[in-house]
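Exercise 7.
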Amino acid sequence: MQSYRGRRVLVAGAAVAGAAAARVLLDLGAELTVVDRTPSARTEELAAAGARVLIGDALPDLSTVDDVVVSPGFAPHHPLAAAAVGAGLDVYSEPELAWRLRGPDAPPWLAITGTNGKTTTTTMLAAILRAAGLRSDALGNIGTPLVPVSADRSSYDVLAVELSSFQLHWSRDLAPEGGALLNLADDHLDWHGTFDAYTDAKTRIWRAAGGIAVGNVDDPRVAALLPPDGIGVTTGVPAAGQLGVVDGMLVDRSGAALVAADVIRPVGTHNVSNALHAAALALGYGVPAVAVAGGLTGYTPEPHRNAYVATVDGVDYVDDSKATNPHAAFASLTAYPRIVWIAGGQLKGVAVDDLVARVADRLAGAVLLGVDRAEIATALARHAPGLPVVDVASTDDGAMGEVVRAAAALAKPGDTVLLAPAAASLDMFASYAKRGDAFASAVRALR
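Solution. The predicted structure, written as tokens, is:
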């Protein structure tokens, strides 16, 4: 375990991960500086605990710093991050710090990354591990920092860890004992700069020599990168040594049945793939097949992921607010035969033409909201001419009610009104969860 006593560390960002890192570093005797744009209860708490706290956008004096721990919002081109790298400082993320603090009795990490499906797969994996009688939980990018629990086995036997491309980019030593790459699609290009840089970050999930490497062979990009000794996952009939689906059953690498595909929740082929990735990691770690079946059968899906809300006047309303990019939206749009699509928000520099072209024949109408809705409208005009499209320009608290009422007016009995925005939420909502909550409230108001 790396020693931090007397080490001069700057923590950039005092949100959940940054504050957790700062508290642990203070406990370890680091000379700590915390920077954040705005004061908060967390910055006040850290100052009271002995940290030097700097508020504002001004660059701190990096000549007095040895290490910089950055929160996910600090992209490589952020002035502070770029200056720290340019000064030759060690710049890394909270999960990397957690990895460096692991002791000889630290619990193993089984980690998941990918453009979409990370949280679902990570929580599925945790459910399987618990079904095997192991102390485990879903941690990391899912919202629970790794730093407080990574050092020993006092709380956990094995960790199910979600890692984002941001966290993996700012890593050097982090090498999980098992890693799964679910898919690769254009996303966060505004953060990484190029798709190659994004891909490079994602494939660091397989950094461990001799580790369990799992990858989605239905995704050509992932299949091309999967190590030769990696475990392939497919939602079709598997080749030798792969996990897949045969006669409606998820099967392991030997072809033995694990669980019926129709019990997997949330619905959709992409979630069958998620379940298979979780199973591959668990089986590779030595978990028995019966625990895989038990964990997946009893799994409770996370909110805002293809979640049924209600049926009103014969129309189903489904919340997939977590579909924050076109790749994720495609997965849910293809789960229903006839859809009134609610879309829009922050596209993050990602094009939507291909998505719209592939789902146009399923659309009965569209309602658009958010800052980049015009780009989706243009794609719909090109690939679905004549489709009824409602543009909602409002951004106030009542906007989602207007959106849902417009969608209800377009829908007919048997249709599905699907919130699958293909875009981030922060132009209008505090989070994708708040966006989904607003949708569900508006649906309930219809009733």
